[in-house]
Fold this sequence. Notes:
The complex is a heterodimer of chains A (115) and B (110). By secondary structure, chain A is mainly beta. Chain A is 0% helix and 49% strand. Chain A has strands at 5-7, 10-13, 19-24, 31-37, 44-50, 53-57, 65-68, 75-79, 88-95, 105-106, 110-114. In chain A, strand 5 (44-50) and strand 6 (53-57) form a beta hairpin. Chain A is globular. Chain B is mainly beta and 110 residues long. In chain B, strands 2, 4, 5, 9, 10 and 11 form a six-stranded mixed beta sheet that branches. In chain B, strands 1-3-8-7-6 form a five-stranded antiparallel beta sheet, with no helix packed on it. The A-B interface holds A 4, 6, 33, 35, 40-45, 48, 56, 91, 93, 98-101, 103-109, 111 and B 4, 31, 33, 35, 40-45, 48, 50, 88, 90, 92, 94, 96-103.
Amino acid sequence: DTGVSQDPRHKITKRGQNVTFRCDPISEHNRLYWYRQTLGQGPEFLTYFQNEAQLEKSRLLSDRFSAERPKGSFSTLEIQRTEQGDSAMYLCASSNRAGGVYGYTFGSGTRLTVV
Amino acid sequence: GEDVEQSLFLSVREGDSSVINCTYTDSSSTYLYWYKQEPGAGLQLLTYIFSNMDMKQDQRLTVLLNKKDKHLSLRIADTQTGDSAIYFCAEDTGRRALTFGSGTRLQVQP
């Protein structure tokens, strides 16, 4: 297992288009998290899953955003009707239980640019 | 509430020690982490400290935790040019994932 994988690495889209990102976590991790990071800021929590259940969503996750983890393995994050303010790095992380001494393992992120 | 603050920038000379500071407000934090982010990359876990510890040393890294003042620091001994990056502290209260600071950019001058 090579860690947390995210695809694509970069996405440029026109305003109003829909985009979908994928995250493949470490296989034995049952928790999966999505964060958003804008320039000069730390990552901000968006949502997390324990197995296939979406347990919490941030108020940052507007109704244009939806995340799924259908089989408790990979996850997708979809943004509908993208806006320029959605431009950011979207990071996925996974953990076993609640982090603890192993922390949370992050992927390299998907950089979204909305033009 | 949860709020993590860090100074924005630190510049040191190669071979010197670097000290990056962080303050947090949630006294129920269980673990506190330090992550490193290089340009265009994700976050790499450097080290952590459990809330009942005062200090943790891991090779060139020393983490100090002052729970009374809610202050966390990361000391990097013998700083190298490869240590140039953005360093984030993050708190884990066990309720929801991690809350990150805005990051400290460390610049190491040769």
